[in-house]
Amino acid sequence: xxxxxxxxxxxxxxxxxxxxxxxxxxxxxxxxxxxxxxxxxxxxxxxxxxxxxxxxxxxxxxxxxxxxxxxxxxxxxxxxxxxxxxxxxxxxxxxxxxxxxxxxxxxxxxxxxxxxxxxxxxxxxxxxxxxxxxxxxxxxxxxxxxxxxxxxxxxxxxxxxxxxxxxxxxxxxxxxxxxxxxxxxxxxxxxxxxxxxxxxxxxxxxxxxxxxxxxxxxxxxxxxxxxxxxxxxxxxxxxxxxxxxxxxxxxxxxxxxxxxxxxxxxxxxxxxxxxxxxxxxxxxxxxxxxxxxxxxxxxxxxxxxxxxxxxxxxxxxxxxxxxxxxxxxxxxxxxxxxxxx
Length: 341
Fold this sequence. Notes:
With 341 residues, the chain is an all-alpha fold. It has helices at residues 3-31, 51-68, 80-99, 104-121, 134-155, 161-178, 184-204, 214-233, 237-242, 245-260, 273-278, 284-307, 311-334; strands at residues 33-34, 46-47. The protein has a two-stranded antiparallel sheet. Helix 3 runs antiparallel to helix 8 (214-233), helix 5 (134-155) runs antiparallel to helix 8 (214-233) and helix 6 runs parallel beside helix 8 (214-233). The chain is globular. The mean pLDDT is 91.
């Protein structure tokens, strides 16, 4: 597929996503209002569920593009279609949870089923941790993917945050795909997701007219988790870690901190680094601008590990990535200079 064709994927997904959101807003205002709670940054009820449009646009455009690509695998056990089935399942789970809350245990079970389908779609000979038994490695990958789905949901707490995180990651994945690391259908999905999020962006700009909702954050986490596993399975584990490193660090450190303090970590809260930043002098726009910029640094570092895969260059990229993410987390924790904590 040419560069023009890949650009068309982004443009079509953005257009379809925006059109569906525009049509959905009146319905979501009636049936899917997000009321402020302990986790919220908003102060008034706002419709949620725009993620349905992002995912619909992604699947429609990616499926059409893959069908049009000569030689791409169709309806095979390890194909894209199995991943789309899992995506639709977890989208339904998110939609129900947006309208009527699902208890933690059944929600996790349904998410685990969707993740299990994605893991089953991976090539049977793909290895990420070859030193481990195959079955144990698959269990670790399933756990990692399930955590990624949930941390994507946890981190979707201020306007434009998901866009600032995943548009750069999608671009990074597409560039890695052009280097031959991702299969062409994976590159197409990354670009379709990028387009879907761009179509959502005007509606979510601070102060947001509509939120993504679990119907969007859960399947977005699932699809990006799958793409990152494919990158890792090609021997580029460092790139797969670097691309989402800000989200991984903020969500994981926050979870560990809450567990250490014996807090009910499964309940809504406002203790993520980016959430604390809103209370310490940073505006939402300043927060997402910093996340957006740092993510492009991480994209560059991830690309460096693919282009120069030696041990020293990979270690240097990981150290630089950890340093810039650590700096961002510390700046959010300390607050804006001159502001009150």
